[in-house]
Design brief:
9 helices; globular; Tetracycline Repressor, domain 2; 63% helix; Arc Repressor Mutant, subunit A; mainly alpha; transcription regulation; single chain; 2 domains
Amino acid sequence: MTVDATTQTPGADRPRIGRAPATTHGELSHIALQLFHERGFEETTVDDIVRAAGIGRRTFFRYYRSKNDLPWGDFDHLLDQMRRHLASLPDDLPLRDALRLAVVEFNRFPTDEIPVHRERMRLLLSVPSLMAHSTLRYTEWRQVIAEFAADRLGDHADDLEPRAIAWACLGLSLAAYEQWLANDDADLLHLIDDAFHRLSTTWGSTRG
């Protein structure tokens, strides 16, 4: 449920006494994920989140446009990191290998973050309202892939091949995530890497 940022309550921007207020994308996302886990996504409101974070609604909306964005954390920053990583790869590295390495790196998280990331992805892949909202984020992610592929292939990012490559990369990632969520002992990065290798073996190499 999207909340109107213009609606304010008395004292809404005063932090709760007794704790330091959450002031980063990551902190707010973690607090929200914990509440979603305890109460359910639909049952948790923005007011619940700002109370737990010790911030006001106005501050919340400086970081996130809606409750639906919270599971994604600072996704724009992650996309910028992926762009920089792709740009840093050697030009003579085959396109399929460059994309595989970049997608693996995009999904690398510190060990202590893995349980949080599992909860995040369970929500994103199972809650209907989040699944619908995710199409916007997936579009942004695919655009980064398509732009890189187009540059390598001498195409435009809106041409068929770069767009198809971007969709394929997303599909491989989501297939790996489904396997990862179904098995607590699975290694996410290995699954993603393996998915890319299997597609290359099955369908052959991509030009570039």
